[in-house]
Design brief:
Elements lengths: L17 E5 L5 H10 L4 E5 L3 H13 L5 E4 L1 E3 L4 E6 L8 E2 L5 E6 L1 H6 L8 E4 L5 H6 L2 H4 L7 E6 L4 H10 L3 E6 L2 E4 L10 E6 L12 H6 L4
């Protein structure tokens, strides 16, 4: 999802927003979101892979001007212990009973309701096939007054229809993110490969970032 050379046009204006980065990996999108959110915004990054989490913490430490914090949680439909399978690679780890790494799973509703995290304004979700449990764990948030205005979610052909149906039931409109920007998604079954979908609840469009990829990379300490 969103590689550096093609990320221009994938980020919206999130000035002063609370942004959740669910499945943050090493933190590239966390840092870019932090640049866009500015000093009065905040980023909360979730990453259950211990190796990736260390890299994520390092990136945040190296970029003190970005208001971000990292939490080592897998995001699911409830709070319980789960297993993480990292055999596909560090960027494609997925929750599975066959996984060798024990992780702590939390639901978004539990984090918001407990006060551990403020409600998000914008979310990015990249959970490698675990989209439906992740979204089920935020049903209270999605149906409440503090629902996020925009959610960007990576889906596969296997999950696209169920994800779109669920989000539309909460009043969100889907758009397919392309190199030229969002375009209406008329039929989720037409998705033949992994894709990024923008779900919008707010009538206001998600303004495409004018921060070019080179400027994004230059502003981030490697």
């Amino acid at each position: 999802m969103w590689y550096p050379d093609s990320c221009d046009g994938k980020y919206g204006s999130v000035l002063e927003a609370v942004v959740y980065d669910v499945g943050a990996h090493a933190g590239f999108h966390t840092l870019v979101s932090g640049l866009l959110a500015g000093p009065h915004g905040s980023i909360i990054a979730f990453e259950p892979n211990p190796q990736n989490f260390k890299l994520l913490q390092q990136q945040i430490t190296l970029n003190p001007k970005i208001n971000a914090r990292a939490l080592p949680y897998a995001i699911s439909d409830r709070c319980h212990d789960m297993r993480l399978d990292t055999s596909p690679g560090s960027s494609q780890g997925r929750l599975s009973q066959q996984g060798k790494i024990a992780v702590d799973a939390r639901s978004i509703d539990s984090l918001v309701n407990s006060g551990e995290c403020p409600p998000p304004s914008v979310m990015k979700i990249d959970v490698e096939g675990h989209e439906i449990p992740c979204l089920h764990g935020m049903r209270h948030l999605l149906s409440g007054e503090s629902r996020p205005s925009h959610i960007i979610c990576e889906v596969s052909p296997a999950t696209a229809r169920d994800v779109c149906d669920l989000m539309e039931s909460f009043g969100y409109s889907p758009s397919l993110l392309t190199a030229k920007g969002p375009r209406p998604l008329k039929e989720s079954r037409a998705i033949k490969k992994g894709a990024d979908i923008l779900f919008s609840f707010s009538a206001a469009p998600l303004i495409i970032s004018t921060l070019a990829p080179d400027a994004q990379r230059a502003a981030i300490v490697p």
